[in-house]
Amino acid sequence: MTELTAAPGEAAVAHAFAAPPAQWRLLLRKPTFIIGAAVLLFWLMCAIFGHLIAPLDPLAQQLLAKNTGPSGAHLFGTDSLGRDVLSRVIVGARDILLIAPLATLLGVVCGTAIGLAMGYFGGVIDVVLGRVVEAVLALPVVIVAFLFIVAVGPSSLTLIIVVGFIFTPLIARTVRTAVLVESQLDYLSSARLLGERPGYIMFAEILPNVLPVIVVEFTVRLGYAIFAVATLSFLGFGVQQPTPDWGGDIAANYGLLGAGYWWETLFPALAIASLVMALNLVTDSIEQVISS
Amino acid sequence: MTRYLLRRIGLAIVTLWLLSLIVFLAGQVLPGDPGRAVLGNFASPSAVRAYDHQLGVDRPLLVQYLGWVGGLLHGNMGSSYTYRSPVEPLIVAALGNSAKLAILALVIIIPLGIAGGVYAALYAGRAIDRTISLTGLAASTVPEFVSGIVLIIVFGIALKALPIQASTDPGASIPVQLDHLILPAIPLVLVLFGYIARMARAGTVEALDSDYARTATLKGLPRSVVIRRHVLRNSLLPTITVIATQTGYLIGGLVVVEQLFNYPGIGRLILTAANGKDFPMLEAGVLVIGVVYMVATLIADVLYTVLNPRLRVGVSQ
Questions:
Q1: Closest A-chain CA to B142
Q2: Greatest mean pLDDT among A101-110, A116-125, A250-259
Q3: Do the chains contact at A265 and B149, CB–CB below 8 Å?
Q4: Residue of B nearest to A134 (CA)
Q5: Which of A112, A142, A104, A291 is nearest to A207 (CA)?
Q6: From the CB of residue B110, how many other CB atoms can be counted at a distance below 10 Å?
């Protein structure tokens, strides 16, 4: 505790990021963490080097080989335009792994700023911002997303803004609670007595101390972001065809399920499922190690 | 209690008014105009203008808004651009279909989620607890359309056990309808199971840990009686609220599942209206969903207050 008051910011950050080696070893001994991290790493590789790994051009159409089932030439088969499903699944990792973290980051940045202001200033600012947060939370998420996207038009940027906007009030609420706990502590009174400006106190004194809360919030929200981005892409509000995208490819091909062409949707679906499950295994393991 | 209720209803009305404003404005800033959307790209500009005039979308915004709200208050939701017929019957039919699907999902999920959560809590820390918690977590993070696709492929195509179209011929018997609705209901169940089980587990763990549960055990009551009479009564309260707060997720899930299973519910109606720039349909649909959501939350709040003596006393003071 003396350490904390001596250098509050550094100590908290060090605690969050450079957890004692024993804790890291604990994490590495958890099979759930290893499996989750491996799958996550695989999709990250696909997102970065997708075009190099993919066996074929994900956009190349072979109109003579439409809707062919999995075979030696096309391990995951071809879709209704004769494009290689395996290549599209590999390259399709990029958009979701770019959009979801950016959206989460946007929500975390805005939510943290609002939460810091609410918790630090209190009073009128807290009440007014609190009402706005309540109002946004009072609407079903899908309605908010819907109205926004319908008004602005579908694109990757819209997706990032919508999901970030939906996350902002949720994160603001969490950060506010953490800030309220901090504001009881001595180092804040001394900062005020030293005459530091509110901006400095909020971002240089309080922020480093609530950072662990924010980091956990980011990892949890990231899972929801992937859920939301994939779903909105499926509804046609995300990346537009012909760009490979898991949700978009499912939307384009699920009408053919009745004809028995299952490979065109099953593989993108399994990709999404494996990504969210891997992320949750990792998050769950980290939380367990931290709380133990 | 009455004051609390009145305040809640007042707040709900204010939120609804805000929602109507947002819906209307979002509808108006939609890119492209309805005349163009309905008549197509090859219609002449004068024809589009004439059609817009006929619809009244070339009037000032305030006039349009007041006309729309005035109509709503008289029970007139306007008429659909795409279907060229009044909106109400379409919305009512779609809402009925969605209700069927939602109720089926809730009938499955509430007992399942509560049982799972309570069971996990009773064996807290053991393998069965970890299994239930992790399964719930994994299931609740997989989007509905992903689990839906897998279910369709496994049960609809590989096993040919269940139909993959949710809609039935009008007048189909209830067992036939159930047969068609069971596959779409499962993705909704999967997503909600994790949340409800987690809440039920947390409440039960807390109640098991309480002084009154210890007292009941120490005075020699059988474990089953302690759980039934002392633990569950306290632990299931928060679960009721969480089920109501999930109405929002449920509505979002309905949009996705109805689209995937080609089911004529309110979610698919709104999605189609949004893509077809059918403002009256979109606005009415979103408002109706807003009303449903608010009523559900209100009922949950009231139910919670009625069931929880501590809160009831707090309110009357």
A1: A273
A2: A101-110
A3: yes
A4: B15
A5: A112
A6: 17
Choose among B22, B27, B293: nearest Cβ to A140.
B293
Neighboring chain A residues of B156 at a CB cutoff of 8 Å: 257
In a domain, A8, yes or no: no
CA separation for the pair A72, A215 (Å, rounded): 44
> Is position A168 within any domain?
yes
A10 vs chain B: nearest CA distance in angstroms?
34
Task: Report if residue A182 sits inside a domain.
Answer: yes
Q: How far is A68 from chain B (nearest CA, A)?
A: 17
Which segment, A33-47, A114-128, A239-253, B264-278, is predicted with the most confidence on average?
A33-47
Tokens of B202: 């947390």
- pLDDT tens digits along B69-105: 787 777 777 777 777 788 888 888 888 889 889 889 9
Range of the domain at A237: 49-56+71-291
**Which CATH number characterizes residue A164's domain?**
1.10.3720.10
| Cβ–Cβ below 8 Å for B270 and A146 | yes
Residue A131, pLDDT score? 73
Which value does ipTM take for this structure? 0.79
Q: Is the pLDDT of residue A73 over 90?
A: no
- pLDDT above 80 (res A27): no
Q: What residue in A sits closest to B26 (Cα-Cα)?
A: A151
Tell me how many domains chain A contains: 1
Asked if residue A36 is part of any domain, the answer here is no
Residues of B within 8 A of A133 (CB-CB) are: none
Joined tokens for residue A82 = 């004769």
CA distances from B3 to B9, B40, B295, B313, B317 (A): 10, 54, 17, 13, 11
Average pLDDT over residues A19-25: 67
DSSP labels for A246-285? HHHHHHHHGGGGGGT-THHHHHHHHHHHHHHHHHHHHHHH
